[in-house]
UniProtKB/TrEMBL annotation:
UniProtKB keywords: Hydrolase, Signal
Signal peptide: 1-24
Stated name of the protein: Amidohydrolase
Domain Amidohydrolase: residue ranges: 216-647
Annotated EC: 3.5.-.-
Segments passing through the bilayer: none
């Protein structure tokens, strides 16, 4: 539930940055002449034949074949005979017999570059309990090293597991000359089970035992080593943890060992709180984003070309799960540089990059929103001639995450643990902290709209959501640009009243983080809050019932970027019951968050609703008028599936979604077969 700044500006090659600033993006340097794109009008470059085509176009709901021309535009949707009439001997033919073709999945929100950087197993240590990267489990055919969590999915189950992995990584790092930092990703204390060190508390879980999120991370990590920096990101991205060498390397103003010459890095949100926590080894919110950028930037600077290679790898994983457009949910110059390098010269056809990307501009180094607007302008200029990359919106934050205790609530957290119990630092009872208050959000909305951008607002807690909604209502006289919508992002605890206000404004979309119900429903129910506030979180059905455009998203690398999985969670509201994290009270925290006897409400949605969340509704969220359906003159973005997710058998039993494979995708008319299609889908567990 957060944003990740993947790489600092300083890690991007100087020549590339000068190109970006010169308003001539690298992606435009090898643009083919216009006559190439317009060649042979009415002639198909690609045809897909004998398929079950579900168009999501009411005028022509089904077909069996599609023709796409050299511009990447759909020129015919019909039967195989009609489509073949547009083919020549040079036309690429794909026999899709037995497959279902849908509009390509559009990513409503994630951080693909952040996801891609953590595929780097040579520099980043996996300490996660969620299979974000679709690794094979021990015993599965693809797992050839069943004891190696870098290559096979072996979840950390308690704090001792995490410490053991860190100690092993430190031992390896010390063998290098000079020793290298130990960088770990996606640690989540809220999902940790009972630790052997909790001898006096045999049923204790996560925060009830020792974790790094207890106000003592610096000392705990220093006990592992002070010879090399240790830096650990949380699963949410809103919190990170450091030892003394890592803290010194970050040079955060007001922390031990920081410089006093004006060159230190200044926190931009809740400055006193963030500085105090940093001195304890815990980096919250913008400091976490900054720190991830620093250490990722060091890796990329030391390994020229690695960033583009990793981004290509991340894009291929997204495409293997059906995406034809991915989002970069908090993009700055570093991200622009990565995408420019990875897509240099890319125009369809004949481009290895398998999808297009929507940049959401954000400057995480300043509280001055004018710099975020300037970032958007720099991105638009850099990619103005790119077919694949574009800036679509600006970003702002209202709060953090529930499981990290940084979500902003109207009433106190049910269970609170250090450091959030520290009076004098945090007001008690503890309700979290806003990142950007309502008045500032309203000013940012006006400024974004005046500059020609819609805005995406991150919001989790009910107080933060009401602030964001009230800001939207207060600026209804200055709406987003025509055809565009502001997006209310995550909306874990949004109320019916909030949704009614949004409906009355009529210029917003609501994007629901459905898979969070599966991965965090149990920890948030029995550890962080209470059933009354948790069982109906992420209320997708309530959004739909009000006629608001509703999308679903993964917020990757927080959770796996897998639309069919996210649809399955939204349709079932199943809650993971990890073997290492026992459910001590299933009557209060059931395995399905719907129709609970104690907390009425059913927020489940239909599979068709879920598919629309990644197609027609996602296009509406962005304001696209040529994506989201299979229709003549639309962009040729398609996903090819092994089976029909709308088959009545699947509708009756959503678990059958687990058996459906992505056979390939089409991006702007270029076909990308899925090289993993012959393997069973790796379903998140």
């Amino acid at each position: 539930m957060e944003t990740r700044s993947v790489v600092q500006q300083s890690a991007v090659p100087a020549a590339l940055l000068s190109t970006l600033f010169a308003l001539a993006g690298c992606a435009a340097q090898k643009t083919p002449p216009p006559e190439r794109a317009q060649a042979f009008p009415g002639i198909a470059r690609l045809v897909l034949l004998n398929a079950n085509v579900i168009t999501l176009d009411e005028a022509q709901p089904v077909a069996e074949a599609i023709a796409i021309d050299a511009r990447g535009k759909i020129i015919k949707v019909g039967n195989t005979f009609e489509v073949l009439r547009l083919a020549t001997r040079t036309t690429q033919r794909v026999d899709a017999t037995g497959w279902t073709i849908l509009p390509g999945f559009i990513d409503p929100h994630s951080h693909m570059a952040g996801y891609a950087m953590f595929t780097d197993i040579d520099h980043w240590l996996d300490v996660s309990s969620i299979n974000i990267y679709f690794k094979p489990s021990p015993g599965a055919p693809g797992c050839v090293t069943p004891t190696d969590p870098q290559r096979c999915f072996i979840p950390v189950q308690n704090q001792s597991d995490v410490v053991a992995r860190l100690r092993a990584a430190v031992a390896k790092a010390l063998l290098n000359t000079p020793p290298t930092p130990v960088l770990a990703f996606n640690y989540d204390p809220s999902r940790l089970g009972h630790d052997p060190s909790c001898v006096s508390k045999p049923r204790s879980l996560s925060f009830e035992c020792t974790t790094f999120e207890n106000g003592n991370a610096l000392a705990q990590l220093d006990a592992i080593t002070t010879d090399v920096p240790i830096y650990i990101t949380s699963e949410s991205g809103h919190i990170s943890y450091v030892n003394t060498p890592a803290l010194a390397a970050l040079n955060i103003c007001g922390t031990k060992g920081s410089t006093s010459d004006g060159n230190c890095h200044k926190p931009i949100m809740n400055i006193n709180v963030e500085t105090a926590l940093a001195n304890m080894g815990q980096l919250d919110e913008d400091l976490s984003l900054y720190a991830t950028g620093v250490f990722q930037g060091q890796v990329l600077k030391a390994n020229p070309g690695l960033g583009a290679k990793l981004l290509q790898n991340g894009a291929e994983i997204y495409a293997q799960h059906g995406y034809t457009l991915a989002q970069e949910g908090a993009a700055g110059l570093g991200e622009f540089g990565l995408y420019a390098e990875a897509t240099a010269g890319c125009q369809r056809p004949d481009c290895a990059f398998p999808l297009s990307a929507a940049m959401i501009a954000y400057d995480n180094s300043s509280s001055d929103f004018a710099k975020t607007i300037a970032m958007g302008e720099a991105g638009r200029a850099a990619f103005r001639d790119s077919q694949l990359v574009s800036v679509q919106a600006l970003k702002s934050f209202a709060d953090g995450s529930l499981q990290g205790y940084t979500g902003y609530l109207k009433s106190p957290y049910t269970n609170v643990f250090p450091p959030f119990t520290l009076g004098g630092l945090f007001a008690q009872p503890y309700v979290g902290l806003p990142d950007v208050p309502q008045s500032e959000l309203a000013l940012r909305l006006r400024a974004a709209h005046a500059a020609g951008y819609p805005m995406i607002i991150h919001q989790i807690g009910d107080a933060a959501i009401s602030d964001a909604v009230n800001a939207v209502v207060a600026t209804r006289d200055a709406p987003p640009p025509p055809g565009k919508r502001d997006t209310m992002l995550h909306v874990a605890m949004i109320s019916g009243q909030d949704l009614d206000q949004l409906k009355s404004v009529g210029t917003t979309a609501v994007s629901v983080m459905s898979s969070n119900v599966y991965f965090y429903g149990l920890p948030e129910c029995q550890m962080v809050l209470d059933p009354q506030r948790i069982l109906n979180v992420y209320p997708a059905r309530s959004v739909l019932d009000r006629g608001l455009p509703m999308t679903l998203h993964s917020d990757s690398p927080v959770e796996p970027p897998y639309p069919l999985f996210e649809i399955w969670v939204a349709a079932t509201r199943n809650v993971q019951q990890p073997s290492w994290y026992p459910n001590h009270n299933p009557s209060d925290c059931p395995a399905v968050f719907a129709n609970s006897p104690k907390v009425p409400g059913d927020e489940r949605i239909g599979i068709l609703d879920g598919i629309k969340a990644f197609t027609t509704s996602a296009a509406m969220q962005y304001g696209f008028t040529d994506r989201g359906a299979i229709k003549e003159s639309y962009i040729g973005d398609l996903v090819l599936l092994s089976d029909n997710p709308l088959d009545p058998k699947v509708i009756a039993n959503p678990d059958l979604l687990k058996t459906i494979r992505t056979m390939g995708t089409v991006s702007y008319g270029q076909y990308f077969p899925n090289r993993t299609a012959s393997m069973p889908p790796v379903w998140p567990q």
